[in-house]
Amino acid sequence: MAWQDLSDEELVRRFNAGDTGAFEGLFRRYEVAMYRLARARVASEDAALDIVQETFLKAYQGLGKLRSGPAFRAWLYRVCLNVAAGSARSEARRRRAETDAAERLEEVGEPIQTMLKQEGLRRLQSALSRLPRLLADTLILREIEGRSYSEISEVMKCSEKAVEMRLFRARRLLRRAMAAQEGMP
User: Fold this and answer.
1) 96-116: pLDDT as tens digits
2) In the CATH hierarchy, which top-level class contains the domain 1-97?
3) Which helix (H) or strand (E) holds 55?
């Protein structure tokens, strides 16, 4: 039977029973989602790929401790968010070390539309980085990953009402951070 036909629960059960090939099914099923989640948290594609790699390495190492297959998705999202948080701290330190001149050299020759789009993404990521981690993660899961309140509550280990409140606060703070970047009150 192909991995596409198996549930997460069955793949986890098979992995825990010694079928290491079952992990490939889990990887293939979630690699794109983990990349999107990582990409929303860090500025570079390379850093996002590193986060995905580390996420799945940690998942491989820790999957034996996970007893319930249905909880796999929420658990994997938590692993990725934790790895991304650590990576974001490292990336912030690296970005501070870079000079403005190096950034300008990278932009030379790019079409103006691409530059504007990249600048908008940088501004959004910068504003997101100013939000408290719980609020930013909740907002990313909802707005970028398209997860339901129920799924987010499972990942974040909170009630759906808490998800609703976090999203309200995150959106309000994000609007303020974006406005502050533009020099607006």
Assistant:
1) 544 443 444 344 444 545 555
2) mainly alpha
3) helix 45-62
